[in-house]
Amino acid sequence: MGLFRRRDTDSELAAMRAFLDELRAELTERTDTEVQSLRTELEATRAELNDRTGTEVQSLRTELEATRADLDERTGSAESSVSSVRAQLTMTSSELDELDARLRAIDDRLSTPMTTPPPPPPTAPPAAPAVPVGTAPAIDSDDVRTLETHLARLDERLAAVDRRVTVVSTELANQLAEISSDIEALDQVAQAAQEAREATDTDTDTDTGSDTVPAVDPELLEELRDSQLRLANEQARYQIAFRDDLARLAEQLKRR
């Protein structure tokens, strides 16, 4: 009777061992399958993230290059406008010098009294009565009208130059504001892409050997900021030069 019980126990133990081995094998197989599936899904997610981030970085590079080209073009246009205004100021200064010389000549004529009347021309009618000593000659009305015309033209040109200076200054200020907005927007997008890349590198398995996500070139951003600063300095310098030239011209007109 005891022999039969021992055989039954051995059979039950063997059956339990077989069942446990079967469960262990099934669990191992399922675990390996799930791990492989998760690894495959992780690799696909990493590849998709790298692809998207790389596309965004390339788009940022392209946008930065376009912004830099646009900045260079606008700076060149502003410098051309400034050169044109300076040429106009130089021409106006030359005209002022010419008018100054003519005014001095008229002043000399007015301040010098005639001691003797001029001799009459040989074939002319009898000469008019002599002008008394110390009496200034009459001013030629044609010269006065000519001077008034020149002064009116100078006033118009000075007003045009002032308007041009205002337009150039406003344009430079608008360009600076637009470029500042572009830089801030690009910085925000670049920082978001960098944070996404760092978060991905932290959360994923480093043994998979995935490629590193390219980062935004900081030299491009730094160069864009330098261009913005250079444009701001140019704007300030041009405004100071314009105001000095206008003040000098106005002072010359006041002395007339």
What does this 3D model show about the protein?
This protein is an all-alpha fold. Helix content is 82%, strand content 0%. α1 (2-111) runs parallel beside α3 (218-255) and α2 packs antiparallel against α3. 7% of the residues are buried. Residues 114-118, 128-136 and 207-214 have low confidence and may be disordered.
Write the layout of secondary structure elements.
Layout: H1 2-111, H2 141-203, H3 218-255
Helix pairs in contact: 1-2, 1-3, 2-3
Poorly predicted runs: 114-118, 128-136, 207-214
What average pLDDT do the residues reach? Answer: 71
Strand fraction = under 5%
Tell me about the largest β-sheet.
Answer: none
In short:
This protein has 256 residues and is mainly α. The chain is 82% helix and 0% strand.
Based on the model shown, name its key terms.
256 residues, mainly alpha, Glutathione S-transferase Yfyf (Class Pi), Chain A, domain 2, 3 helices
